[in-house]
From TrEMBL:
InterPro entries: Aminotransferase_I/II_large, TyrNic_aminoTrfase. This is Aminotransferase class I/classII large domain-containing protein. It comes from Paramecium sonneborni. It comes from the Eukaryota. Keywords: Aminotransferase, Pyridoxal phosphate, Transferase.
Length: 398
């Protein structure tokens, strides 16, 4: 037998161990309610879909023969120009500062390969989307978790961040708006982060796939980019409720060309995986022009209603404590292990699934052992939440 790599085997065992603990109850008396995937289209909410205008634009592009050929490995020229136009923020961004990727994960992968060497480290948030937790070790890059302040809208703890920094640190990874916290940094905090990075000569990689999805003001890192280099990652997935289309982008804000070598390295990396779907890329200019970058932002009032309802209801259940979000369609809920008589949030999730057929994502699966709880989605319909709350109360024996 030809063996897989040790890295792949270890990752596979970890995933199997997790999902075996959350085994779906096939013959359960109650229908399954699953909040595992951060996919806004799953529950049929009438606000979680692309406009018919967007569908018609794509249909018109499908019929063009040139949209079924290979293009440049960094993406089509119209798509890159459109991203530069709508996300340039007056920074003289051009198509040469943009790469179109197949999902933000591909952009994060390029950052790892294009910036880091073995023995170096990166700074990532705890809590945060755990993309780097597994894959970085395959390239012998250390992941250092910096603290977020749960009692202060999940802002960065700069004292802890300073303690994690050394001469081998390659970049600071921030997620704003945040998955899974639902936090949105204020303009002042974004500026604080940029100032810190500039003072310490550290590149920022800003994951902004939830661009604009805030209940109040949203400020992109690209808007405040000045002296130091910043790579912003975004995409259509959440902005236009099309996660299956997998059209995303990387934008290099670097007026002093400090990261010019890195940008060229990433352009070269694009030749390994080629490019995203051409007719969707060439639909992007019209979609951005007609629907604008505020398409998701304009729908946030509906998710805020669900957010407020869930906080009101879940906080009434003994042992649960919601941490209010400032945006996205996520809500962090902390659990009291003693009250529920469990040793960790995975055991809590396992018991809830077994007894009530509700599947939740434990916070510990987001690369943390500091917080025990689960990520709740605010994109389902009200009838699903009413059913879920009744089951949760029964589970907690309220």
């Amino acid at each position: 037998m030809i063996k897989a790599s040790e890295f792949l085997l270890s990752q596979n065992q970890a995933l199997l161990a997790n999902f075996e603990q959350l085994e779906v109850q096939v013959n359960h008396a109650k229908p399954l309610i699953s909040f595992m995937k951060g996919d806004p289209t799953l529950f049929g909410h009438d606000q979680c879909k692309m406009s018919q205008i967007g569908y018609d634009i794509v249909k018109s592009e499908i019929s063009k023969s040139q949209n079924h050929s290979y293009c440049h490995s960094t993406g089509t020229q119209p798509a890159k120009q459109a991203v530069a136009k709508h996300f340039g923020h007056g920074k003289n961004i051009t198509e040469n500062d943009v790469i179109i990727t197949q999902g933000v994960n591909q952009g994060l992968f390029y950052c790892l390969l294009g910036i880091c060497d073995p023995g170096q480290n990166i700074l990532v948030p705890e809590l945060g989307f755990p993309f780097f937790d597994g894959i970085a070790q395959a390239y012998q890059v250390e992941v250092r978790k910096y603290k977020l302040q749960s009692d202060n809208q999940w802002q960065i703890d700069f004292e802890d961040l300073k303690n994690k920094l050394d001469e081998n640190t390659k970049f600071l990874y921030v997620i704003n708006p945040s998955n899974p916290c639902g936090s949105v940094f204020s303009k002042e905090h974004v500026q604080e982060i940029i100032n810190w990075a500039n003072q310490n000569r550290i590149l920022i990689v800003a994951d902004e796939i939830y661009y604009g999805m805030s209940f109040g003001e949203f400020v992109s890192f690209g808007e405040l980019a000045d002296e130091g280099p910043i790579i912003c990652l975004g995409g259509m997935d959440k902005m236009f409720f099309t996660p299956g289309w997998q059209i995303s982008w990387m934008i290099f804000y670097d007026k002093n060309n400090y990261a010019g070598e890195i940008k060229q390295a990433m352009f070269n990396l694009c030749q390994l995986l080629l490019h995203a779907n051409v007719f969707i890329m060439n639909s992007l200019p019209q979609i951005l022009d007609h629907l604008t970058i505020f398409y998701a932002k304009d729908k946030m009032i509906h998710f805020k209603e669900n957010h407020d309802f869930l906080i009101q209801q879940l906080n009434q259940i003994r042992g649960l404590k919601c941490v209010p979000a400032q945006g996205t369609f996520y809500l962090t809920v902390l659990i009291d292990l003693d009250i529920f008589q469990v040793k960790n949030d995975v055991e809590f999730a396992k018991k809830l699934l077994k007894e009530q057929n509700i599947m939740l994502l434990p916070l510990s699966w987001n690369g943390t052992d500091k917080y025990q709880g689960f990520r709740m989605l605010t994109i389902a319909t009200k009838d699903i939440y009413i059913d879920m709350i009744e089951r949760m109360k029964e589970f907690a024996r309220v």
